[in-house]
C-alpha cells in the first residue's frame, strides 16, 4: 500500500480564512518541491473550493466549519475540501467519490462564475462527492521530481 | 490577505490602483469602489493591476459586473499591467477575449 503523510485542518466557514488556507497550501506544496507556477495553481484551485463552501455556509446562515485534508504523496498532492466540520477518512471519501456532474448542491460554484472551471483547468484530477455536504477532492502531480529532490536535499542540510 | 485600492482622477480618466490579493474576503471592497465609478455615464476607468499578486474567480465576478455596468452606462473599463499569474486566470476563463485587458508583456510593451 502506498504510504503518504496526511495533514488535516479545520477553519471556520468565513471569508477571512480563505487566505490563511492559501498560506498553508503554499507551505505544504513548497515543502514538496512544487514549482512556483504549480503552487500558484494550487492556491487558486483550493481557494475556489473553499470559497464555494464559505458562500454556501453564508447562504444557509450556518456557522459552519470547513475541513481540509492534504494527502502528501511521493509524486502528488491530494487536497480534500469538505463543507462540513466532521473529520473524514481519506480512503472512505475516495471510495465514495465520482466524476463531476450537474447537481444543485454545486450550483453555486458555477453561478459564482468560473470556480469549478478554474479548479478543473488548474488541477490534474478533480472529483466531487455530495452525499453528505460537498467534498471536493483534487490532485496535482509534481513535475521534475528528480530536480526537486536534489534541491530539497541541499536545502535541508 | 489584504487589499488596498486607490482612486485617482487624471484628466478625463479615473485610474484605480489595486494592490494585494483579491479573493472572497477582499472582493467586496473592490466591488464597492469600482461599480459606482463605471456606472457614471461615459466614464473612462483604468484599473491598474500591477500590484495584484493573487486573484481568483471572486475577482473575476467583480470585473464581470463592472464590465456589464459599462455596457449600460456607455462607459469603458480597461485593466492594465497584469502579472503573469493573474493574466492566466483571464485566459483560462476566456475573459481576455471579452474585456479590454493589457497584460505586462515580457521583453517590451504590447
UniProtKB/TrEMBL annotation, chain A:
<protein>
    <recommendedName>
        <fullName>Serine-protein kinase RsbW</fullName>
        <ecNumber>2.7.11.1</ecNumber>
    </recommendedName>
</protein>
<keyword id="KW-0547">Nucleotide-binding</keyword>
<dbReference type="GO" id="GO:0004674">
    <property type="term" value="F:protein serine/threonine kinase activity"/>
</dbReference>
<keyword id="KW-0067">ATP-binding</keyword>
<keyword id="KW-0808">Transferase</keyword>
<feature type="domain" description="Histidine kinase/HSP90-like ATPase">
    <location>
        <begin position="11"/>
        <end position="140"/>
    </location>
</feature>
<dbReference type="GO" id="GO:0106310">
    <property type="term" value="F:protein serine kinase activity"/>
</dbReference>
<dbReference type="GO" id="GO:0016989">
    <property type="term" value="F:sigma factor antagonist activity"/>
</dbReference>
<dbReference type="InterPro" id="IPR036890">
    <property type="entry name" value="HATPase_C_sf"/>
</dbReference>
<keyword id="KW-0418">Kinase</keyword>
<dbReference type="InterPro" id="IPR003594">
    <property type="entry name" value="HATPase_dom"/>
</dbReference>
<keyword id="KW-0723">Serine/threonine-protein kinase</keyword>
<dbReference type="InterPro" id="IPR010193">
    <property type="entry name" value="RsbW"/>
</dbReference>
<comment type="function">
    <text>Negative regulator of sigma-B activity. Phosphorylates and inactivates its specific antagonist protein, RsbV. Upon phosphorylation of RsbV, RsbW is released and binds to sigma-B, thereby blocking its ability to form an RNA polymerase holoenzyme (E-sigma-B).</text>
</comment>
<dbReference type="GO" id="GO:0005524">
    <property type="term" value="F:ATP binding"/>
</dbReference>
<comment type="similarity">
    <text>Belongs to the anti-sigma-factor family.</text>
</comment>
<dbReference type="Pfam" id="PF13581">
    <property type="entry name" value="HATPase_c_2"/>
</dbReference>
<dbReference type="InterPro" id="IPR050267">
    <property type="entry name" value="Anti-sigma-factor_SerPK"/>
</dbReference>
Automatic annotation (TrEMBL), chain B:
<dbReference type="InterPro" id="IPR002645">
    <property type="entry name" value="STAS_dom"/>
</dbReference>
<keyword id="KW-0597">Phosphoprotein</keyword>
<dbReference type="InterPro" id="IPR003658">
    <property type="entry name" value="Anti-sigma_ant"/>
</dbReference>
<comment type="similarity">
    <text>Belongs to the anti-sigma-factor antagonist family.</text>
</comment>
<dbReference type="InterPro" id="IPR036513">
    <property type="entry name" value="STAS_dom_sf"/>
</dbReference>
<comment type="function">
    <text>Positive regulator of sigma-B activity. Non-phosphorylated RsbV binds to RsbW, preventing its association with sigma-B. When phosphorylated, releases RsbW, which is then free to complex with and inactivate sigma-B.</text>
</comment>
<protein>
    <recommendedName>
        <fullName>Anti-sigma factor antagonist</fullName>
    </recommendedName>
</protein>
<dbReference type="Pfam" id="PF01740">
    <property type="entry name" value="STAS"/>
</dbReference>
<dbReference type="GO" id="GO:0043856">
    <property type="term" value="F:anti-sigma factor antagonist activity"/>
</dbReference>
<feature type="domain" description="STAS">
    <location>
        <begin position="3"/>
        <end position="110"/>
    </location>
</feature>
Amino acid at each position: 500500500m502506498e504510504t503518504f503523510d496526511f495533514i488535516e485542518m479545520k477553519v471556520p466557514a468565513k471569508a477571512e480564512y480563505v487566505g490563511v488556507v492559501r498560506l498553508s497550501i503554499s507551505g505544504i506544496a513548497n515543502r514538496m518541491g512544487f514549482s512556483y507556477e504549480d503552487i500558484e495553481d494550487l492556491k487558486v484551485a483550493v481557494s475556489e473550493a473553499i470559497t464555494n463552501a464559505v458562500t454556501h455556509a453564508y447562504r444557509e446562515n450556518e456557522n459552519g466549519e470547513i475541513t481540509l485534508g492534504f494527502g502528501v504523496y511521493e509524486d502528488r498532492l491530494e487536497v480534500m475540501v469538505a463543507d462540513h466540520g466532521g473529520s473524514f477518512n481519506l480512503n472512505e471519501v475516495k471510495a465514495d467519490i465520482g466524476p463531476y456532474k450537474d447537481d444543485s448542491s454545486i450550483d453555486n460554484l458555477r453561478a459564482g462564475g468560473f470556480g469549478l472551471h478554474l479548479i478543473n483547468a488548474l488541477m490534474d484530477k478533480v472529483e466531487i462527492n455530495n452525499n453528505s455536504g460537498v467534498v471536493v477532492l483534487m490532485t496535482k502531480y509534481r513535475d521534475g521530481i528528480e530536480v526537486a529532490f536534489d534541491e530539497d536535499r541541499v536545502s535541508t542540510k | 490577505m489584504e487589499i488596498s485600492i486607490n482612486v485617482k482622477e487624471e484628466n478625463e480618466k479615473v485610474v484605480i490602483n489595486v494592490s494585494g490579493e483579491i479573493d472572497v474576503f477582499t472582493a467586496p471592497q473592490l466591488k464597492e469602489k469600482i461599480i459606482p465609478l463605471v456606472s457614471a455615464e461615459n466614464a473612462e476607468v483604468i484599473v491598474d493591476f500591477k500590484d495584484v499578486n493573487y486573484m481568483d474567480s471572486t475577482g473575476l465576478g467583480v470585473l464581470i459586473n463592472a464590465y456589464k455596468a459599462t455596457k449600460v452606462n456607455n462607459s469603458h473599463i480597461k485593466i492594465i499591467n497584469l502579472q503573469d499569474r493573474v493574466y492566466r486566470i483571464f485566459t483560462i476563463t476566456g475573459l481576455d477575449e471579452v474585456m479590454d485587458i493589457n497584460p505586462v508583456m515580457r521583453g517590451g510593451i504590447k
